[in-house]
Amino acid sequence: xxxxxxxxxxxxxxxxxxxMRIHLETQAKLHIQDIIRSGEIELVTSYVLDFENSNNxxxxxxxxxxxxxKEYATVYVSNKNEKDISNLAKAIMETGIKEKxxxxxxxxxxxxxxxxxxxxxxxxxxxxxxSGEFAAKASAYADSHPFTGKAQIL
Length: 154
Description:
Layout: E1 2-5, H1 7-11, H2 20-38, E2 42-46, H3 47-54, H4 59-72, E3 73-77, H5 82-93, H6 99-110, E4 115-117, H7 123-127, H8 133-144, E5 152-153
Parallel strand pairs: 1-2, 1-4, 2-3, 3-5
Helix pairs in contact: 3-8, 5-6
């Protein structure tokens, strides 16, 4: 079974745990991490996740998230299939989904994920980008920061 987690999932443990919903989401995310570590499910990451994580305001959080993704990802969706991902993302965007979200979904579809976990994170920053800007910046980031994990690269 393959799962694709968005950046909010990775950042949830760093949020204010005094709110019950956030605390429960954190516990669920940490449980999923344990299952990934045990090898019971496969973690899929992507150049889109890498780019989004690179915009994390906290260097420590960014590095911890990057380390987990590189260490435990079994499949990595690279930008070498950017044309196919872009075409799929554009089709997804026709349903009203924002560009960033569409690219995450497209990467999950390309990797044939069984589950996709998405929650809101940095929406304001990325939603202010012009059409096509997110995709271009994510691909440029992937070119300048090649994936170095042990995952199968798609």
